[in-house]
Amino acid sequence: MTTFPERPPFVPKMTQTCYLVTCTDGPNSAEPRAEHLAGHLQHVEDNWTRYITAGPVREPGGEALVGSIFLVLADSLEDAQTLMNGDPYLTCGMYETVKYQEFSNSIGQYIGGKIWKDLDSIKHRAAGGPTDDITKGVSK
Fold first, then answer.
1. What is the pTM of this model?
2. Would residue 81 count as lying in a domain?
3. Which helix (H) or strand (E) holds 43?
4. Is the domain of 86 the same as that of 114?
5. pLDDT band at 125, cuts 50/70/90?
6. What is the CATH number of the domain that holds 83?
7. Which of 28, 29, 60, 88 is the most buried (most CB within 10 A)?
8. Three-state DSSP class for residue 37
9. Which residues form the YCII-related domain (predicted)?
10. Is 140 domain-assigned?
11. In the prediction, which pLDDT does 129 show?
């Protein structure tokens, strides 16, 4: 069993942009999922270091897959789209929608803590302020 400190430690913010790619299956997606599974797995395995995590999603308590979530490291939106467009699951038209959003890895087991030093260091963000001070731990 993994043990963690009671409070999350400060960790540096990731320097590369992360994109949350949310894909929602279209109707009758089971057949293309099965047909393109080998190509999809080959693509994600070949590019595994570009994903923070990725996987299918289901409705709560359900068994049927209804989409996929990818946290993709990329130098730009275009870079993330190029990576994703190499995945047969995207190119076969299985997904009804594909949405890209920038994502900030701020706290959790994966990053090993939290990216803010204290409340004052991020208070300006709650009002929509700039992000450049979060890694320095100082407020504006």
1. 0.83
2. yes
3. helix 30-46
4. no
5. confident
6. 3.30.70.1060
7. 29
8. helix
9. 19-103
10. yes
11. 65
Closest CA to 121 of 111, 131, 110, 109: 131
Tokens of 119: 């409340």
Closest to 129 measured CA to CA, from 140, 118, 115, 117? 140
Residue type, 100: Y
Given the structure tokens 């992000």, which residue do they identify? 131
> Domain limits at 118?
110-140
- Residue 2 main-chain phi, psi, to 5 deg: -80, 135
Q: Where are the alpha helices (DSSP H) in 12-131?
A: 30-46, 77-85, 88-91, 119-126
Q: Which residue, chain included where needed, has tokens 């992360």?
A: 18
3-state secondary structure of 21: strand
What letter represents residue 99's amino acid?
K
Q: What six digits make up the tokens of 113?
A: 């803590």
- Cβ partners under 8 Å of residue 107, min gap 6: 8, 113, 114, 115
Distance between CA atoms of residues 100 and 19, nearest Å: 6
Express each pLDDT in 44-53 by its tens digit.
999 999 999 9
Strand-pair partners of 17: 74
Q: Do 96 and 118 have their domain in common?
A: no
- Residue at 10: amino acid letter: F
Burial of 25 (C-beta count, 10 Å sphere; 0-12/13-18/19+): buried
